[in-house]
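[Discussion] Sanity-checking designs against the backbone

I'm trying to build intuition for which residues belong where. Below is a structure token string of 368 positions. I'd appreciate it if someone posts a full sequence so I can compare it with mine line by line.
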């Protein structure tokens, strides 16, 4: 009997320093805490052995935080334990997020040896002044060195994260970041607009002073520039904020948008298994005691229906409305009449205009 596909997520909640815009579950920590955390993470993975009877791993993703802050042997131990518990489907995609300046040749060699085949570099900007304002720990030059070492280590699937609408950023500045990044020919580029999150230093700095950020027209121009610039250089837009060379769309993220079952390990990690969504413990002190469990609940039919469209329509290929056409038929027709959705080859997908105001469109599928 063929096993069902399962995506694995490993949350590494440590970083060198917290970026000024970041609201992720992450913080600096010393080597002793990191070692304790990895030991608990391995225990949690082993406790999931029962899943291996039903599932095989098709992707794994180390996120954070900054996973590459861990020692190379930590990553090796985690990958070995995953291999002891789960079987891997041939060609499984294994990604690790890395900040420039936190990888070296030894780490990259170990990553390759233990099965990591995709790296995601958090560059954000090719301008050192912009990086400084963001609170990033690296420079453009350090990113170039890390990118070059990754290529030399044999990585042929690299992503670069970029962020637009930064404080003080101009259209010309954003174009230079796109040009410098695309010239390196990474296989994948994720391009997001800065969001000012409550509780971050940026919120206190900019929430009451929007004049310090690019205005709405400038942000829109940057957004339009991104689409055109990357398309002309061979990057296919397959999701609202993600672009890839043919064959290099991130399979792990596609799994989220297509609601493939996934199992999360680590502090605050989420899982979706058989219609049940759970979230791990979010207090590090409790996690280090071995208290992994957080909240859990079965999704209702309404939850499943809403997520099907709310997540699936993020993909430029859209979704097959068949399973829920009876429920959403009138809404689908209204959104098509408004020029926000189109239907082709049996799928509904966002139009260019629909993508522009995707938050509004996706919210229409959330029933009251």
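Best answer:
Here's mine. Compare freely.
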């Amino acid at each position: 009997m063929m096993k069902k596909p399962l995506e694995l997520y490993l949350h590494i909640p440590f970083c060198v320093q917290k970026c000024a815009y970041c609201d992720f579950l992450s913080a600096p920590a010393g080597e002793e805490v990191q070692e304790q955390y990895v030991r608990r993470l391995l225990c949690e993975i082993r406790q999931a052995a029962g899943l291996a009877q039903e599932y095989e791993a098709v992707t794994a993703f180390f996120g954070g935080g900054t996973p590459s802050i861990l020692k190379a042997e930590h990553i090796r131990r985690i990958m070995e334990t995953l291999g002891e518990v789960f079987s891997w489907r041939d060609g499984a995609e294994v990604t690790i997020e890395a900040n420039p300046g936190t990888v070296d040749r030894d780490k990259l060699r170990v990553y390759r040896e233990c099965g990591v085949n995709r790296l995601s570099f958090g560059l954000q900007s090719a301008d050192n002044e912009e990086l400084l304002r963001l609170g990033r720990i690296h420079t453009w030059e350090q990113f170039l060195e890390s990118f070059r070492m990754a290529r030399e280590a044999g990585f042929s699937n690299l992503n670069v994260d970029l962020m637009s609408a930064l404080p003080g950023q101009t259209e010309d500045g954003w174009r230079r970041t796109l040009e410098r990044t695309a010239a390196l020919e990474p296989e994948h580029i994720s391009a997001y607009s800065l969001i000012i999150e409550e509780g971050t230093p940026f919120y206190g700095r900019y929430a009451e002073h929007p004049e310090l950020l690019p205005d709405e027209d400038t942000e829109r121009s940057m957004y339009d520039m991104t689409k055109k610039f990357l398309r002309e250089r061979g990057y296919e837009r397959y999701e609202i904020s993600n672009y890839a060379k043919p064959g290099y769309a991130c399979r792990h993220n596609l799994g989220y948008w297509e609601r493939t079952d996934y199992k999360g390990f680590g502090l605050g990690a989420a899982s979706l298994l058989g219609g049940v969504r759970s979230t791990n413990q979010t207090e590090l002190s409790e996690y280090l005691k071995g208290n992994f469990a957080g909240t859990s609940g079965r999704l209702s039919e309404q939850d499943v229906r809403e997520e099907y469209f709310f997540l699936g329509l993020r993909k430029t290929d859209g979704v097959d409305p068949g399973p829920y056409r009876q429920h959403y038929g009138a809404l689908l027709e209204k959104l098509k009449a408004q020029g926000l959705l189109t239907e082709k080859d049996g799928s509904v997908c966002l139009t260019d205009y629909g993508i522009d105001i995707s938050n509004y469109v996706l919210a229409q599928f959330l029933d009251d």
